[in-house]
Amino acid sequence: MKEFSKEELRKALDSKAGQAQELIADPVKWERFKTKFEAFLLKTTGNPVLSEVYDKLVTMLELTDSYIKKEYTGVQPGTVTTFLCALIYFISPFDLIPDVIPITGYTDDAAIIIHVLKSGAEMDLRKFREWKDTKAKWSET
Fold first, then answer.
1. Residue 2: is its pLDDT beyond 70?
2. How many Cα atoms within 13 Å fall on the side-chain side of residue 28?
3. Could you read off the pLDDT of 39-85 as tens digits, one per residue?
4. How far is the C-alpha of 58 from the C-alpha of 64, rounded, in Å?
5. Among the listed residues 10, 30, 36, 52, the one whose alpha carbon sits nearest the alpha carbon of residue 93
6. Which of 10, 93, 113, 124 could join 53 via S-S bond, C-beta 3.0 to 4.6 A?
7. Helix axes 27-43, 17-25, angle to 10 degrees
8. Cα 32 to Cα 48: distance, rounded to the nearest angstrom
C-alpha cells in the first residue's frame, strides 16, 4: 500500500468537516447519504485493498447512524465527526488517488480509515459493538 503522511491524511479528512457537520445537523441529508454510502459499499465488496477495513467501515456507519438518531451517546461528538469525514471521503471520487483506477484507487481510502482507527477510534468501535450486542440481547428477552 502506498504510504501517505499523517499531514496528507489529516488534511484530506479535514476537507470533509463542513459536509460532516451538515449531515449531522440534517436527518434528511443524513438518510440520503447513508443510502448512497450503503450502495457504494456494496459496489466495493471484495476489493482486496479494502478487505482489512470493510468491517470497520460498516461499524463506523452504524455508530454514526445510532449517534445521529440519538440512540447511542457513548462517543465524543468529535469522534463521530471524524468517522463521518472518513465515510464521506470514502465515497468521494475526488481524493488523493482517483477511485476510477482499478484496485489502486482505493489505497488512499483504506489509508484514511486505518489512520482514523490508529488515532484511538478503534476502541470507540469496540465499545459500540458491545453496546449493540447488549441491546440485541435485551430485545431478545
1. no
2. 0
3. 999 988 888 888 888 899 999 999 999 999 999 999 999 999 999 99
4. 10
5. 36
6. 113
7. 120
8. 27
Say which amino acid occupies 101: I
Whole-angstrom distance, CA of residue 22 vs CA of residue 29:
8
Rounded to two decimals, the pTM is 0.89
Chain centre to alpha carbon of residue 13: 11
Q: Say whether 135 sits in a helix, a strand or coil.
A: helix
The confidence score (pLDDT) of residue 141 equals 58
Q: Which three cell numbers, joined as nine digits, stand for 126?
A: 469496540
Dist CA 116 CA 111 (whole Å): 9
Q: What is the torsional sign of CA 91, 94, 95, 97?
A: positive
In 26-113 the beta strands, taken as DSSP E runs, fall at: none
Hunting for cell 441491546 — which residue is that?
135
